[in-house]
Amino acid sequence: MAHPPIAKHSLHLQDFSPEQLLEAVRGANFEHYILTRARCDARLERWSCENFTVDVGRYSFPVRAIGAFPSRKLFIGYMRKSPQPAWVNGVEADQRTMEFYPEGTELNYRAAPNSEWLAIEFDEHALQAAAQKRLGHNLELPWKHVVSFRVPRSERAALDRMVRCLWTHPVSGALMIGPILGKIAEILDGLRRKLSREADSGEIRRVALLTRADDYLRASIAHPFDLKSLANAVGANARSLQRYFMDAYGLTPLQWARCLALHHVRKRLLASNLKKFTIEGAAREYGFRHMGRFSIHYRELFGESPIETLRRGVEPQPRCI
Fold first, then answer.
1. Of 246, 215, 258, 254, the residue nearest 233 (C-alpha)
2. Contact (Cβ atoms closer than 8 angstroms) between residue 53 and residue 46
3. Domain with 263 in it: what CATH number?
4. Which helix (H) or strand (E) holds 254?
5. Exposed, middle or buried, 207 (CB in 10 Å: 0-12/13-18/19+)?
6. Which residues touch 120 (CB under 8 Å, ≥6 apart)?
7. Nearest 5 degrees, angle CA 117-CA 181-CA 72?
8. What pTM, to 2 d.p., does this model score?
9. In what helix (H) or strand (E) does residue 309 lie, and over which residues does it extend?
10. How far apart are CA 265 and CA 293, in angstroms?
11. What's residue 192's pLDDT?
12. What are the E-state strand segments in 74-192?
């Protein structure tokens, strides 16, 4: 049975527009946060055919993305380019690793500027059909959370070559879907025992701790930051918490709390009427008490003043790729 040709969609943003990056991966819902001021250039490309999709994202700025993958879909992802290691759910990810994302997986991702990621989406039925054809048996997929694992350079290069064939030949590229799924099945089957054996309880605890810390900071966003209270709330000592944050996000807990609050203020300003809203009101709503310092932090992160953001008015509805 012939496949329809591969459909390609692209999105190029030359400013920081997180609303338009929500569905960077098809069907997902990811909030994006710029972590430090940098030139903002985001490029998303999508190649899709029926229930199979390849998404590629390139960001010029340091980014953190938080959200969930869609249900009823499986994903394999990896960094195609990364000047520094990325972090996926608190675990280092570089060009030697891949990630397997079960259905509806929560994602907490951080990458350095000028990184490029790739995600392959497929359904389990198609993967199992490919496994039967390639391996002669179904795959066991016992994982309920994101699994990061090392892959031999040759295996990863082979998969990447197949993906590139798919997107460089849109008419005949659909013929590569079966072989790509077969290669993914082969990789997962060969590593299943290793993945089960190498499950790191320390990593699991660290991810849970970072999630609790993030939830605490969001719930207390209108209050002054207090590292001791945060550490007590999540059950860690302050020094360890500082180290975990720096490893996973490249920011201290205080810097991330401020970054989170600034993004909330920006979203509030973009959705507000210039005549009926004050910048000070938005800043105070999210915990800023000193307007001079707030304005400095805001410009340092977004490259514009709060009044410049407010003057833009309500942004148009995002255009998803």
1. 215
2. yes
3. 1.10.10.60
4. helix 253-270
5. buried
6. 52, 53, 54, 75, 76, 77, 163, 180, 184
7. 75
8. 0.86
9. helix 306-311
10. 14
11. 67
12. 74-81, 86-88, 91-93, 97-101, 106-111, 115-122, 147-150
Residues near 116 by beta carbon (within 8 Å), at least 6 away in sequence: 56, 57, 58, 79, 80, 81, 82
Same domain, 174 and 186: yes
Residues contacting 143, CB < 8 A, separation 6+: 100, 102, 195
- Helices 253-270 and 291-302 cross at an angle (nearest 10°) of 90
Cα radius of gyration rounded to whole Å, the chain: 21
CA-to-CA separations, 87 to 27, 197, 218, in angstroms, rounded: 22, 21, 21
For residue 74, tell me if it sits in a domain: yes
Residue pLDDT, tens place only, 178-234: 999 999 999 999 876 565 444 456 677 888 888 899 999 999 999 989 999 999 999
Q: Does one domain contain both 235 and 212?
A: yes
Strands 42-49 vs 52-59: parallel, antiparallel or unpaired: antiparallel
What is the rounded CA–CA span in Å between residue 108 and residue 320? 21
Answer yes or no: are the C-beta atoms of 286 and 280 closer than 8 Å.
no
Same domain, yes or no, for 56 and 174?
yes
Helix (H) or strand (E) holding 61: none
How much is the mean pLDDT over the chain?
88
Distance CA 321, CA 242 (A): 37
Q: How confident is the model at residue 247 (pLDDT cuts 50, 70, 90)?
A: confident
**Looking at 170, 199, 228, which one is the last position of a domain?**
199
